[in-house]
Amino acid sequence: MKVTAKVEKPGEGVSGDPVSVEYNFGDTIADMIKNFGEDVIQSRARASLVIDLQAFIRRQINAKKSLKEIQAAVKDWKPGVKAAGKTPAEKLQALLEGKTQEEKMQILQDAGLL
Predict the structure, then answer these.
(1) What is the pTM of this model?
(2) How far, in Å, CA of 99 to CA of 29, rounded?
(3) Residue 111 falls inside a structural domain
(4) Residue 35: CB partners within 8 Å, gap ≥ 6?
(5) In which domain, by residue range, is 45 found?
(6) Domain contains 52
(7) Are residues 76 and 40 in the same domain?
(8) Are residues 92 and 74 in the same domain?
(9) Contact in structure between 52 and 80 (CB atoms under 8 Å)
(10) What integer pLDDT is reported at residue 84 of this predicted model?
(11) What are phi and psi of 21, to 5 degrees?
């Protein structure tokens, strides 16, 4: 596999050009375990999964969910599986939330819905 990296803010005398190398991580989990050992693969997988779960939790926090709601959502969370997005009605409700009746009417008029 080709892996590329570059220095975003190169220091003096350091090129900002990308560098690519070939590296054999293995094509399967079995290959990876053979190359690096089960403990390394398990540790790196767990670290990656924790980061994914933290991102999911942050999205829940930003959606103003309570701890109880977040814990319930985490129970059903699966790494790499994208949750269904909000329906148009849910997006509209979120947009109108906390607005006065006049503000709501103006938004709907501006959108050509009234």
Answers:
(1) 0.61
(2) 52
(3) yes
(4) 24, 25, 26
(5) 29-83
(6) yes
(7) yes
(8) no
(9) yes
(10) 64
(11) -135, 160
Mean pLDDT of each 10-residue bin along the chain, 114 residues long: 91 89 97 97 97 96 95 92 76 88 90 84
Sign of CA dihedral 87, 91, 93, 94: positive
Specify whether 36 is located in the same domain as 79: yes
Residue identified by tokens 């190359």 is 35
Number of Cβ atoms within 10 Å of the Cβ of 60: 19
**98 and 59 in one domain?**
no
Q: How many domains does the chain have?
A: 2
| DSSP result, 30-64 | HHHHHHH-HHHHHHHHHHHHHHHHHHHHHHHHHTT
What pLDDT, on the 0 to 100 scale, is given for residue 70? 96
The whole-number pLDDT of residue 16 equals 85
For the stretch 28-61, pLDDT in tens is: 999 999 999 999 999 999 999 999 999 999 999 9
